[in-house]
Amino acid sequence: MQIALQNVNVDLGAQFSLKDINLVFEPGMMTLVLGPSGSGVSALLKTAAGLKTPSAGHVLYDGKDYGALNDQEKPQLQTRTGFMFQDAALWANLSIGANLELPLQAKFPRLGKGPRRQMVADGLAQFGVDLDLQKRPVDLSLGEQKFISFLRAVIPEPEALFLDEPVSWLDQRWTDSIMTKLEALRTRGVVIVLGSHNSHFPQDRADRLVILDQGQVTATGSSKEISWSLGLTHSPLSPSGGGVGDETVEPQ
Amino acid sequence: MATDQYRSPTLISAPITWLGATVRQSVGEMVWAIGFAFALLRQSAVLLLRRQIASPVLVSQIYFTGVEALPILGVISLSIGAAVVLQGVSMFPQFGQGELTYKILILVITRELGPLLTALILAARSGSAITTELGNMVVDHEIEAYQAVGINPISHLAVPRLIGVTVAMVFLNLYFNLFGLFGSCLIGSLIHGIPLGEYLGNLVLVISLEDVIVAGVKSIFFGVILGTVATYFGFQVDRAVTEVPQKTIKSLGASMTLCVLASTVISILFELR
Questions:
Q1: How many residue pairs from chains A and B have C-beta atoms closer than 8 A?
Q2: B148 to chain A: which residues are within 8 Å by CB?
């Protein structure tokens, strides 16, 4: 699946908005969108995932305009993507098991309860997670909720994966598990888009960095290219790196 | 002079601008609300025909709205029935119109106050709870999470709530009638010594099929109004948790007003028939 944002503008109220975004996310490419708080990182991910409607421009999935799809086609397309929210956003009134099963139910409506549960069990076993699936999200720590949110996005085997602050609140073990899984998904041709406000995020793992500032893309390229372009020896967002630069490596 | 020239048009144009903006916003909101109501009703009809209602949500909604409201509704209907018969039995015979007590009882309990009071209680209990719950789900990004996995929030969350509230409304109205008439019966025989058989016989004589139909039609309409308004205002919450109580109050006010208006319109239509 290829996802393209063409001249996308998103009006997010008085505070900030996305302006003239042109990006293409290719299969098997891991893109990291970096920007300070309020720069529109989450909004960019949600727009690319079809969760926010652009006020101008187009979001294309394999060349098809998402905005032109009808009420039946949009949910069908959504079952092919996965989204991990910044604040986990688990369904509070459902058990952990139901949180993990519901996306499978939506994607494979004819799949029985047994095979669905087996897919969930396999997904948990893959990461060595041993949790009581009858528990509610409120019974879990924030880190556990976040990891369940990751599993909810990954278990249905999406073709495109959007992860907003994927490793915040997680310990090193789970961070490593997520990054290893993402590497495996990348080799299988999954589109991976990560969003973070944290300059300490493992940037070298991404194929491409997109630097966002005040709703505009200010630079794209590999971590090294951006550092070189800005004349930095540090990460483009690290405090000593001088913040988000104005130059653009690839013209937008 | 220059200042006066500047001020005059501002003084005139400012209220007009404000009025225009307010009207435009109100019309926009109304169009959106009507669009939402049509989408919800259409989706409900489609999912009912296909039998694709999210049954856990539907069952919990019927339980919360219907079963948990039984005690409070029982007390209110018993009290109303008792009050009507107390006043009627002591007043109407003075004018030689003792049999009017039964007619008034049916009129008040079955046709008018029964459905309306049931609706008002459901608006306060369940309507506000639905708005609060959906509003909090919006703030916590749970609605977006449904969209992200390909589940339509209207089909999955609003439709079962609308149907649950409507089903509960119909049965609670029936329950209100039974308890209201039973309460009046109890007071009639305890205080005024009216024989139970005579009392029930008189009630059966005055109640008509039209009374039952009016009550049924009203409860279905009220259920649809409550479900639609509550879910509409729940989804109207944008991003801040402080919006939740504001939308809940608006939802409650709109539900009550629309139910009272609908009750009047239905009564008039049946009277004109």
A1: 56
A2: 49, 51, 78, 81-83, 85, 153
Chain B neighbors of A107, CB-CB under 8 A: 149-150
ipTM confidence = 0.87
B149-175 residue pLDDT tens: 999 999 889 999 999 999 999 999 999
The DSSP element (H or E) to which A175 belongs, if any, is helix A172-187
- Whether B154 and B40 have beta carbons less than 8 Å apart is answered as yes
Segment B126-136 mean pLDDT: 96
> How many Cα atoms occupy the beta-carbon half-sphere of B94 within 13 Å?
5
Distances (CA, A) of A230 to A57, A105, B210: 29, 47, 82
What global pTM score does this model have?
Answer: 0.84
Q: At residue A105, does pLDDT exceed 70?
A: yes
Q: Please name which of A209, A214, A177 lies closest in space to residue A31, comparing C-alpha atoms.
A: A209
- Residue B248 · residue B131 · CB < 8 Å: yes
- Beta strands per DSSP E along A113-239: 160-164, 191-196, 208-213, 216-221
- The DSSP code sequence of A114-128 is HHHHHHHHHHHHHTT
